[in-house]
Each structure stands twice: as structure tokens, then as C-alpha cells.
């Protein structure tokens, strides 16, 4: 059974290698989709892959080459170093997968990535800050009105059920009419953590904050973005922080790797279930925002998130500098869609900012 599924996993791996934003859930959905279709032929497999991996129109030719390499038996030849034509089928395009700093096409992004502001670890005091955050989170995280109601002395509506019960006990004599008001519940929080190489010295603190958030917030979803999208909500469910981060480290295969923030955000929004998490939620992106590819994908994803979310905040370690101004094309393009751009250099700064969002709203 597993051998029969090998080509499907190989296709997802080859697409990631070529720079397509493919999440693990998309791979699972792709296999399930093929099962639903039958399939009656290779065209059904192709159609399921096109639909569920959300292949952009401008990269269909590249996708077709990879698909043929996997399902037409050309995979072995594709690894041969001497055969340039076969290698092209699995190689990324010129504008998608450059990871090395020396190969950056955008001067602004290259300069920002080399900034010394990201070369110092800021772990001291993290434990105390996270402990304080967990203590105050339940009381200070954003909340929204629920449709359910509860008894209240100062409600906005007469509680008829309780009034009738009281009237039945007192033969119709009611001194005070019971009242009710709508309950509140914590608003969903979606946290996207950048684990690319440029955030290497901050990853521990950011993932530590994500764990504190997952432990203290009732409704939270956490993902990592680097060269791919990984959902780590389940891994952060462990109460022990060390054990939880160890599990997350095993699940996130692109940690300290390349940077494709725009593709990561687009991959997140391309999965309907994930996009549904954003509706009415508080969205936090913990990233330096140094997009090295075409900034269009990141700007478009930021605009979509802003329209769907309750509030959309971007926390970058670069903002620790009081003179910081977003000058890269990607971050400057996202700026009009943000409800807040703030310091994300330490867990303490992030914790204080998040706890004050509800008060400022």
C-alpha cells in the first residue's frame, strides 16, 4: 500500500524542492482527492494535483514537467547530473528558490538580511516574560460577544425564563426582574512564526512565545513559515515547554533555512480550513518581513488577511530600533494593511504588545 503512495509523496516533495508552497495537509488532501476520483486515469491524478496544490497559472509549465517526471518514469533520469534537460524538470525557476544571500536579486532585501540587529540572541528573561504572559492572558487577550446569554444584575434584556420561574414560586409577585447579557469568549488567535535563516537567533524566543500562547489561549492556531508551511498547534499542546519545542523541532524541517514569506502566507490561505481560521481572528505574524522573492505574493496575502481578520499585526525584531522604517518593497507594501507594526525582538516585547491589543482596540 505504501509503495503505491510513493509517487504521490514524491510529487509533493519535488514541488517543494522546486519552490512551490505545498503544506502537509495539501498532500493529504491530494491523496484523498485521488481516492475520491477513482482514479479512472492519469488525467484524474493530474486534475487533483492542479486543484489541491493550487498551482498558479504562470507556473503550470514547470508543474507539468515535474508531474511528468514523477508519473512518467523520468525521476531516475532527473537526478543524473550530466543530463541537463532532465534536471530542469526538477529545478526551481529563477525567481523562486534562491536561498543563498549572495544570490539575492533585491538589493534592499540583501542589505536587510545582513543587518547586525539579528545577530544577537535575546533569550535572557524569556522564562519570566512567558510566565507573566500565561498568568495574564486569560484576562487580557481579546474577546468577542457570544450569542449565548448569562444572568446579570446589569443586563440589557429581561431574562423571561427566570422571571416566569420566579413568578411561579411567588404567585406572580416579582420584586426585581431578572436580567441577562451576552457572554463573551476569547477571540481566535492565528500566529504565524517565521523560522527562516534570517530569524535564526530569534526562533527559540518566538517558538517559546507560541507555546505560551497555545497554553494560555483557548482558541489558537500556530504555524511556521520558512520555505514551507507547517502547522504546529498539536505539537505545542504539550504542557512541558522543552518537550513541546522538541516535538516542534522534529516537525519543522525548514527551520533556519531559506526565506519565502509570501509563498508561505499564500500556502496558508490556499488551504480553505486554514483560511477559515483567519475570519474574525487576531492574526499575528512574527517575522522580519525580509522577503527575498517577488513581493507581490506577500503583499497580496497581507491584503487578504487584513480583509478577513479582526485585526492583523506584524511584529518584527527590526522594529526594536526606534528609527526603524519598513523600506523593503514587501514590508512597505503590506504596511497599509496592518493594524499594527511593532517590536518583535524579544518574548517580553511580544507578550506586552499582544496583551495590550484588546485595550487599544
From TrEMBL:
Residues 186-355 form the VWFA domain. Gene3D superfamilies: von Willebrand factor, type A domain. InterPro entries: UCP010256, Uncharacterised_CoxE, VWF_A, vWFA_dom_sf. Keywords: Plasmid. Residues 82-109 have a biased composition (Acidic residues). Residues 81-114 are annotated as: Disordered. PANTHER family: BLL5662 PROTEIN, BLL5662 PROTEIN-RELATED. This is VWA domain-containing protein.
